[in-house]
Amino acid sequence: MGDGKNMKTKKEKKISKIKEQLAQLRAKLKVDNEGHQHTKLKPKPAAKPKPPAKPKPAAKPKPAAKPKAEAKRKIKEEKKRKAEAKRKIKEEKKRKAEEKKRKAEAKRKIKEEKKRKAEEEVRKKAEEEARKKAEEEAKRTYEDELEEQLTEEEITGFQLEKTDMDQMCNKVCEIIAGYENDGVLQSNLWKKLKLSSRDGSRLALKLERMGMITREKILEKERWTYKLIIKKIPISTKSIENGAGHYVLDLGCAPGGWTQVAVQLAGNQGKVMGVDMSYVEELPGAHIIKSDISDISITEEILSFFGRKINVVICDLSPQVSGNWSVDHSKQISLNYAAAKIMDQVLEKNGNALFKIFDGEYSNEFYDYIRKKFAKTKLKKPKVSRKQSSELYCICLGYRN
Ligand SMILES: C[S@@+](CC[C@H](N)C(=O)[O-])C[C@H]1O[C@@H](n2cnc3c(N)ncnc32)[C@H](O)[C@@H]1O
After folding, report:
1. Which end of the chain is more exposed for a tag (fewer CB within 10 A), N or C?
2. Cα of 5 from ligand 1 centre, angstroms
3. Shortest CA distance to 142 belongs to which of 194, 185, 202?
4. Is residue 279 located within the same domain as residue 173?
5. Which residues have C-beta atoms less than 6 Å from ligand 1?
6. Same domain, residue pair 338 and 207
């Protein structure tokens, strides 16, 4: 019991000590027993009266859960659509790029093919030329050599001693004309005329230059030589065929090759007149006059022979060729203008004409002049044996008068 009492006092002592310490602490802190602070604190400003609470705006009605999902789906779809469009554009670009590449490739191939063909053509041409040259070389004749050795003047001005060359030329042409389209082997002809082959060959070259004959290269007894053929009207003779009543004037007719054709074509009731300043042997069925076409009385003589205007004028005039082409060409064109002047006075309306033209500087001018006089005209270049043929034929149909 005594121990209990002791313990109680001890406890009480401890408590009173703690209470003391607490009091001291309070004193320090100036806090009363209730724990309230005794320090004067600034009075808090009176709290502002709160404004009356604004009535909250009515909350937006939340979209129903379903439309939201729909919108999301639409956005997703739009994105998908855009992605698809992008992909398509990309694909299209790729396709176009490939197409471009393909086209470029095709172009390159075409270009290469063209180049190859052009090269092939050049090669073939060169081969062909080489072949022709070799062939020509093998075909070389005495005349070819002469043609190379002699100047044009020496050919066209060829003159046999003490011989009237005009008569000689006409005589030779007449003989050649007798063989018609078959022509005659020149070696046979020179034998007949007792001419050396050198003179004969020069004469043949001269006649060819004068436009009276053509020379055709042929192989005879394993030797290349020439066949001489008279030059006929180099175009269709339709305009004077079946010519009952056809009246034909042949200007520059010697030695008479075209005149003979005209006689055949004009028929019995036709009339043919030939004019030449050179001598021409009588030709059955034709009336020949030896005259210069620049003679002013010629028109009167023509009209008096035919008795009326005529159907056809053929004109094969050539000057004495000098070998100087530009001079010969100018002279020949002047002869054609003179012939056209005669034609204007003797040709009937709708009549036809044929002019030989030495091709050159003034041919177009003459062609323009003559074509205005006819309903229809055309130019023809005949095939001849000479490499550089320079003759044209102007066919004129339907004289306008
Ligand atoms: C190529 S020849 C004619 C050939 C003739 N067509 C034949 O087939 O037999 C040219 C002729 O025109 C002649 N000639 C040139 N100028 C002449 C002129 N002013 N007057 C007449 N005839 C001319 C020449 O005398 C020569 O006979």
Report:
1. N
2. 186
3. 202
4. no
5. 173, 210-212, 231, 252-258, 275-278, 292-294, 316-319, 335
6. no
Query: 158 lies in which domain range?
Result: 146-230
Q: What residues of the chain score a pLDDT lower than 70?
A: 1-8, 30-65, 233-245, 382-389
The answer to whether 353 and 396 are in contact (CB under 8 A) is yes
- 242 domain-assigned: yes
User: Could you tell which of 165, 208, 253, 333 is best to mutate to test the pocket of ligand 1, judged by most ligand atoms within 8 Å of the CB?
Assistant: 253
User: Angle CA(378)–CA(334)–CA(281) in degrees, nearest 5?
Assistant: 90
Two structure tokens written together for 48: 């502002």
Same domain, 258 and 386: yes
- 82-120 residue pLDDT tens: 999 999 999 999 999 999 999 999 999 999 999 999 999
CA-proximal residue: ligand 1, atom 5 (nearest): 253
Active site residue 100: no
Among candidate residues 356, 373, 376, 378, the one labeled active-site is 356
Q: What is the spatial distance between Cα 280 and Cα 266, in angstroms, rounded to a whole number? A: 20
Give the strand pairing for 271-276 and 247-251: parallel
Tokens of 164: 């009237």
Distance, CA of 171 to chain centre:
49
Q: Examine the fold and report which residue of 82, 111, 139 is the final residue of a domain before the chain moves on.
A: 139
Could you tell me if 202 and 309 lie in one domain?
no
Q: What separation in Å is there between the alpha carbon of 336 and the centre of ligand 1?
A: 11
Whether 305 and 367 map to the same domain: the answer is yes
Measured distance CA(51)–CA(74) in Å, rounded: 46
Q: What is the pLDDT of residue 64?
A: 56
- Cα(351) to ligand 1 centroid in Å equals 22
**pLDDT for 40:** 47
Q: 151 and 129: one domain?
A: no
Q: Is residue 21 part of a domain?
A: no
User: What distance in angstroms lies between residue 251's CA and the mean position of ligand 1's atoms?
Assistant: 7
| Residue 390 and residue 252 share a domain | yes
Instruction: Choose the final residue of a domain: 230, 261, 290.
Output: 230
Kindly state the tokens that stand for 254. 């010697």
If one counts the domains in the chain, the total is 3
